[in-house]
């Protein structure tokens, strides 16, 4: 089986049963903030897109690149469609011209024409991408591979039932939240970023050990930030910013793997090719000489500065398409979002108070703006209404360019995580813990999504099973997203950490130390 890297989580497999293109992303996204790293614009996307099968893991735009899919991928390709609770992914692909779909059931192997076996493991919790994420397993008789990308499968034994894997493609550097946008002391930002980098590495290594493939290709991260106002988030050691980047790059993670005794890591650049066999990776070839490969990572600032100049026209073109904020934006938000608040009892109760959003750069004739042109709104979740902020205390506060919110309104963006909150083009303040319900609410700005997630929360009742873990009797499933704590849980003193998303719980009190509203059942054995 031959693999070609195409950047980020993207790859193309040439198998004995046909060619499979996965997650082809090349255009700047998330309000022109994210760009694939390293540069993949030089690839022949028309040739890459001439395939038998297309697999798009989920709707996050660093995986679902609508322009690239529309312009360069054959519409004769059969789409391997994950089993998701909504039809959004299929509908988006149909709008781009795709007509042939292979429907799947999560965790169930299927066989395609030509004898290619595949399996898609679909995740369906509100924390899994925009209502879903997935992993792809392939077997053409010459090799077994699993393309995990961003997915965090809970049932590893089920994943392994497909067969012993020869190669594992996995995320190692994700973007769940941004410490650097918060109103925190710089030392705290650096410490939070350090913990996040370590947590991501630990989670990736845990999956690598559990899957047990002899060969590992770190994929799905990190992006780079090439817009002038965001360039500092590339983690290049600028004064005051050093250590605040949450991202580990491919070179660094491969070094970490070697430190931990895993010698089977391989660098997959855009254009890199390799032949995968049973337990082997041969003929790995980069598109540039090894000395130039090193400069990408060891002289990263120079590489990114040059890349930024090449990317400037594409970034500027996207920014030119953003909407101008309108004086009646409050009315537009009320008409759209207040009916959804009334359908969201779990989330509104979980948020538990008003959330302040400061819209910067509003036009001068906007009612309620201050002298700086800022309109401060209160998303009053207990009252299920949006109004002008009246000066009350708000535990959660965002500062956002009004043009970004107006663009979301004009485009009907139902997942603000998939636009605004992954863009890093905002600031945030909070008092107390992270609130999962708040960010989940803004992923679900349609009736279909809101109803699905509310029903999902209804179904997440504790099943009553317990396990023993380092001297504690603990419920078997994590209160966050039902991870198996016998596999993902570890105890340090009285604190349990679920390494799937690095959530922490005080076992003595049951209190979640990461977010409100997720208590755990536990008792000390022998007390």
Give a structural overview.
This protein has an eight-stranded mixed beta sheet, with no helix packed on it. A six-stranded mixed beta sheet has the order 8-9-10-11-12-13. It has a five-stranded mixed beta sheet with strand order 19-18-17-20-21. The protein has three domains: 2-317, Ribonuclease Z/Hydroxyacylglutathione hydrolase-like (Metallo-beta-lactamase, Chain A), CATH 3.60.15; 329-453, Nonspecific Lipid-transfer Protein, Chain A, CATH 3.30.1050; 460-524, Rieske [2Fe-2S] iron-sulphur domain (Rieske Iron-sulfur Protein, 3-layer Sandwich). The mean pLDDT is 92. The longest helix is centred in the middle third of the chain and has 26 residues, at 186-211. By secondary structure, it is α+β, with helices and mostly antiparallel strands. The protein has 14 helices and 27 strands.
